Amino acid sequence: MLKAIISGGGTGGHIFPALAIADKIKEKYPNAEIIFVGAKGKMEMEKVPAAGYKIIGLEIAGFQRNSMLKNLFLPFKIIKSILTSISIINNYKPSFVIGVGGYASGPLLFAAQLKGIPTFIQEQNSFPGITNKLLSKKVKKICVAYPNLDKFFPASKIVLTGNPIRKDILNLKSKKEIAISHFKLNPNLFTVFITGGSLGARNINLAVKNNIQALSKMPIEIIWQTGKLFFEEAKETVLKNEVKNIFVYEFVKEMDLAYSAAKLVISRAGAGAISELSVANKCCVLVPLPSAAEDHQTQNAKSLSSKNAAILISNDNILTEITTVIQKLMNNNNLVLEMEKNIAEFAKPNAAEEIVNVITNELKIG
Questions:
Q1: pLDDT-derived band of residue 364, with 50, 70 and 90 as boundaries?
Q2: Where does 3-165+350-363 sit in CATH, by number?
Q3: C-alpha–C-alpha distance, residues 188 and 207, integer Å
Q4: Which of 26, 112, 196, 277 has a beta carbon 3.0–4.6 Å from 117's, enabling a disulfide?
Q5: What average pLDDT does range 343-351 have in this prediction?
C-alpha cells in the first residue's frame, strides 16, 4: 500500500499546495494512506484536519531575526523535532516523504533521509530557502515552479511542475454571475480584490485605511480581506467613514468567487498567490513582504513584472500609490487585457498531477 507523509505549512501558501498534492494522490490511489506533519500552533494544525487528513505537530519554530533571546531554545527544538520525526517515520513506515516548505519540513525530511526513506521537495519560490538547499543534496527530485533554479539545486533533480493550487480556482469563467451575487456587487463597476493572504498584510491594509476617502469616491467596488488582526479596525474605518463600496472580510473562504468577480487583484507575492493568479489569468498588483526569507517574494514578483504580467509596488510605496495604480488600470482596459494574457503564460493548472507523477515514476509505482 502507498503510504505518504507530507510535511510543511505555516501559511496558506504552503498548506493549500500540500492539500492539493494529497487530494491528487487519493484520486490516483484511493487506498493510499496519507498523514501530514506540521508545526504546533501554526494554521496547518487547523486547516489540514478540516480537509479530512490526520496531522501530527512538531514543536519547531523558525529563526527569529527580531528576538535573539527566543533563538536560545531553537537548537533544542530542532533536536526534539528531529527525534520526534524519527519516531513518526519508524511508526508509520512511509513509502516516501515530500516537503512543501515551512518549519516542520526540515526536521522531517532530514529524519527521513537518515532512515533511507525516499524524499522529495516541492519548492514554491523563485529563490529557495537555506533548508531546502541543504536537503536537496539527498532528495530524489525537486519539483519547482520557476525556471533557472539550477544555481541553487542539482540540475539533474529539478522538474518544472509549477505550484499546485486549489481545484476550485481552475474553472472561473462560469462563476462570474455567482460571484457577483455572492458578494452583492454591481456588475457595471470595476471590482478590486485586496488581500494580504490568509494572515493579512499590515501595509496593504493601512494603504486602504489611509486612503479610504479617495477610494470611496472612485467608481469601483472593493472586496477587502484583512486577516484576523486588522479586521475590527477595518470594519470600524468603513463604518466611521460611511463607505458603501468597500466590503470587509476577515477571511474569504470562497477565493474562486473573489477571483472571478475581480478585474484587479492587489496581493502579496507569495508563491501560492502567484500560482493562483496565473491560473485565474488576473491582472494584479504584487506587494512583496519584505521580511520573507531571502526576500523571496520580491524575486517572485520580479519574475512576473519583468514580463509585464504584473505590477510590482514595494511594501512602503503601496501606502501612497494604491489609488494611483487602481486609477491607472481602471482607465486602461488594454493594459489590463495585456497583463491578463501575459500572466496566463505562467499558469501551470496540472501541477499537482505532475508532482504525483514525478514521485510515482521515480519510485516505479504503477
A1: very high
A2: 3.40.50.2000
A3: 25
A4: 112
A5: 94
Q: Does domain 168-344 bear CATH number 3.20.20.220?
A: no
Is residue 255 very low, low, confident or very high in pLDDT (cuts 50, 70, 90)? Answer: very high
What is the C-alpha separation between 332 and 334, in angstroms, rounded?
5
Each domain of the chain, given as residue ranges in start order, spans 3-165+350-363, 168-344
- Gap between the terminal Cα atoms of the chain: 12
The answer to whether the 3-165+350-363 and 168-344 domains have the same CATH topology is yes
- Return the amino acid letter for 303: S
d(CA 27, CA 308): 36
Whether pLDDT at 173 is above 90:
no
Residue pointed to by grid coordinates 503510504: 3
Label each residue of the chain as H, E or C. CCEEEEECCCCHHHHHHHHHHHHHHHHHCCCCEEEEEEECCCCHHHHHHHCCCEEEEECCCCCCCCCCCHHHHHHHHHHHHHHHHHHHHHHHCCCEEEECCCCCHHHHHHHHHHCCCCEEEEECCCCCCHHHHHHCCCCCEEEECCCCHHHCCCHHHEEECCCCCCHHHCCCHHHHHHHHHHCCCCCCCEEEEEECCCCCCHHHHHHHHHCHHHHHCCCEEEEEECCCCCHHHHHHHHHHCCCCCEEEECCCCCHHHHHHHCCEEEECCCHHHHHHHHHHCCCEEECCCCCCHHHHHHHHHHHHHCCCCCEECCCCCHHHHHHHHHHHHHCCHHHHHHHHHHHHCCCCCCHHHHHHHHHHHHHCCC
**What's the maximum distance between 2 C-alpha atoms anywhere in the chain?**
62
